[in-house]
Design goal:
Layout lengths: L1 H18 L4 H8 L3 H8 L7 H11 L8 H6 L4 H14 L3 H14 L2
Helix pairs in contact: 2-3, 2-4
Length: 111
């Protein structure tokens, strides 16, 4: 589950960055980070500190809470629904071929 929150936070950062038309390098310059660090954050490869999250939020001109849109969506869900949401999030980052393979595997498991 730990990797999931890192990937979801990174995806939120990437989404906000691209909405603003910024490259990783431009966001890095604004937040005083190397662009490769921004890439690692967006891919969920590093466990970013709260201080660094705040610097990124400020650089994107958003509130810190906007980096966690997924947390609101999960409130009030049952365990089963949270697991389904987790599967959906995993699939969103995959190409169509992998999604189709996952669909076939799931169909086979549920028969």
């Amino acid at each position: 589950m730990r990797e999931n929150i890192l990937k979801q936070t990174g995806a939120a950062i990437r989404s906000l960055r691209t909405e603003r038309g910024l490259s990783q390098e431009e966001l890095g310059e604004r937040a005083d980070f190397h662009f490769s660090y921004i890439g690692k954050v967006e891919r969920g490869e590093v466990n970013i500190t709260l201080v660094n999250l705040e610097r990124i939020a400020n650089s994107l001109e958003v509130g810190l809470h906007q980096l966690f849109p997924f947390s609101i969506a999960l409130e009030g869900l049952t365990d089963k629904e949270r697991h389904i949401e987790s599967i959906v999030e995993l699939l969103k980052n995959q190409d169509l071929n992998k999604v189709l393979k996952a669909e076939n595997i799931i169909e086979e498991l549920l028969r």
